[in-house]
Design a protein that fits this description.
Layout lengths: L1 H16 L5 H28 L2 H24 L5 H24 L1 H4 L5 H30 L1 H21 L14 H13 L2 H31 L4 H51 L3 H27 L7 H30 L1 H18 L35 E8 L5 H18 L1 E8 L6 E8 L2 H11 L2 H11 L9 E6 L20 E2 L4
Antiparallel strand pairs: 1-3, 1-4, 2-3, 4-5
Helix pairs in contact: 1-2, 1-6, 1-7, 2-4, 2-8, 2-9, 2-12, 3-4, 3-7, 4-12, 6-7, 6-10, 6-11, 9-10, 9-11, 9-12, 9-13, 10-11, 10-13, 12-13, 14-16
Amino acid sequence: MVSNIGSWMQTVGAQWLLIGDNAALVTLVQTASSLPIVLLALPSGVLADRFDRRTVLLAAQFTMLAVSCALTVLAFMDALTPVPLLALTFLLGCGTALMGPAWQAIQPELVERRRLPQAAALGAVNMNLARALGPALGGVVVAAAGAGWVFAFNAASYLGIAGALMLWRRPLATTGAADEKLLAALDAGRRYVWYAPGVRRVLLRTILFIPGGAALWSLLPVIASRSLGLGSDGYGLLLGAVGVGAVAGAFALPRVRRGLGANGTLAAGALVFACVLAVLATVRIPWLVAVALLPAGLAWIGVLSTLNAAVQTRLPGWVRARGLGVYLLVFQGGQALTAPLWGALADWLGLTAALLAGSVLMLVSAVSVRRWPLHDAAGVDPSLSDHWPTPPLVFEPGPADGPVLVSVAYRVAPENHALFTDAMGHVARSRRRTGALTWGLYQDGNDPERFIENYLVASWSEHLAQHHDRLTATDRRHEEQARRLLVPDTAPEVTHALDAASGPVVPHAGDAVSAQGFTRLPED
């Protein structure tokens, strides 16, 4: 929370140094802070999945400490013109991008899964307490002593998180991710998200909410100075009103979620935000604007904690940071891309028109919940399920050998054919999420009861990761649902074939092959 307070104080100081310029330049502060997420969220997710997340977080803290010290020195030297200010703000954003996926990914290590929604709300309370205090303190300090002191406080605040991380003794976790190449790890994260419908729906809901939300954050300093005639301290108090509303709303969120559910919370939050933007577009009385911003804080924390908890509960540990990197890419990237557009629209059509356009976007977001709701997470269990046996081959392939063609033969009674193919749709997404490059299901033309599943994996090490590191309890349930439709007393027959283009592999002396060259999966 102390570090968040410092970050908000730094934002107020940076925006206020540019407030004499046009609206588009002011909104570039938010772009400079958020754009690194677009560029670095996915590589940062790979780093957090490959290496110790505590170490990654410490590296991010000390990087941001160094950049904040540079900002402080330049501010005290009166050498902080727009170009170095935005450049150093961008570097701070790079530190935030490095930290984000790892910070989010450690939360399931600290609390059990059923408490993740409350933990997400608690994290939002933390952030919004800082939102309530930081801007107000930042505005007062800027008005009384100058921007250099807010940059100095922000630099010192990183030492608090660094100290907490040094005191945390995180158990070392070893996964196959440490052996993945960067591009392969990036592709694995992309593949998982693309074939996880629940995660994709969370991303869609984020895309539909963020552009309208960015209108408030990017235009609020312009509202304070141009519409309301306030100084830096007044702008800080307006941001503080949003934070106070969020903190108060956090205590009501459990009751709201019980009454409305996750999708109802999303729709209600977007509707409230639309009304707030409409008020900001038409009201010029400071205290009325401050009152209107209170429910905006409630709506913001309600939507964000709902989306955050939804994505956290759907991601398994092996790809959690990469999946969260994609979520942060959409969330922060949406703000980075739309903030300058709102500034340009305010300069072109006027502040009122820009805010009303944001209100309309929020109404669209609220209405769209009925068409594209979040999927029910009750049946999702991302815990590891190491239920595949190691393939008993007659030779031991090298880790880079491949690609590997896996074939699984099933016997299905004619009356179950349609149900089986439907059930295998879930299995197909499971295979692709965990490493399959291609997948297909075929019916034997000479034996209609025989179905053959083929999928291709890039390498032997990638396939072993499927066996031992990547499958979840949800994947196992989908496999069991398909197997219940097989002919009684039969089991799938599995074969593994490696690419022969690089030359055949000679079996080791004494190696034996199972009957007919097949590996049988356990029926249970």
